[in-house]
Design brief:
- The chain contains 4 helices and 4 strands, in the order H-H-E-E-H-H-E-E.
- By secondary structure, it is an alpha+beta fold.
- The radius of gyration is 47 Å and the shape is rod-shaped.
- Strand 1 (115-124) and strand 2 form a beta hairpin.
């Protein structure tokens, strides 16, 4: 059976050229789709990177805050240990037959008018075989015209040592430090008196 082509030659050429144009469109569509996927993938990776950097910065910030908290906790533990040691020391003093209200009242009566105390503190004695600690009196005195500062301080020390009721619980009295300085055009002497406790018979 013979196939008869009734189309004009120009139309026949156009019809034969269509498959080539169709293939080009498919290729362009494929390239566009690939480029779009690549672009969207790049955007996703960029956003993911930014998110991970933000998360990492947050983790680093939390880690730094944790380190600060650890340091603060260590400081608090050290302070707790120090206060615990002081509490043990104070309990040791309270075990003695010392009525501190009377002791402080006696001390107040022994302080001359030109002498004042700024601090009263305890310190544990590390030397084995000695008393359980020392009492420290820190204060100052004003210089008098008729008497020297050394004379005033010596008088105060002699009053402390001479009062049998007050000094009965102490083994000795030591002038640990003394300095002369000027404050507001007034010359004063500061001092620290160290008073070791007598050895406790229970130790």
């Amino acid at each position: 059976m013979t196939k008869i082509n009734l189309l004009p030659p120009k139309i026949k050429e156009i019809k034969e050229a269509r498959p080539s144009a169709f293939n080009t469109q498919i290729l362009l569509l494929f390239l566009f789709s690939f480029s779009l996927i690549f672009f969207l993938g790049g955007v996703y990776l960029k956003l993911e990177t930014m998110y991970r950097k933000k998360s990492l910065s947050h983790i680093i910030s939390q880690y730094q805050q944790a380190e600060i908290l650890v340091r603060k906790i260590n400081v608090l533990k050290q302070e707790q240990n120090r206060l615990t040691q002081q509490l043990k020391l104070f309990k040791g003093y309270l075990k003695r037959d010392i009525l501190w209200s009377e002791k402080l009242s006696q001390l107040r009566n022994l302080i001359p008018q030109e002498v004042w105390l700024t601090e009263l503190s305890f310190k544990k004695q590390p030397v084995k075989g000695s008393g359980s600690g020392n009492l420290y009196l820190k204060g100052g005195l004003t210089l008098q015209e008729k008497t020297s500062s050394i004379g005033t301080l010596t008088n105060f020390i002699n009053r402390l040592k001479g009062d049998q009721d007050f000094f009965a619980d102490f083994d000795n009295l030591i002038l640990a430090d003394s300095q002369t300085e000027t404050r507001k055009n007034i010359e004063i002497m500061t001092f620290i008196i160290e008073m070791p406790f007598k050895k406790n018979e229970d130790n």
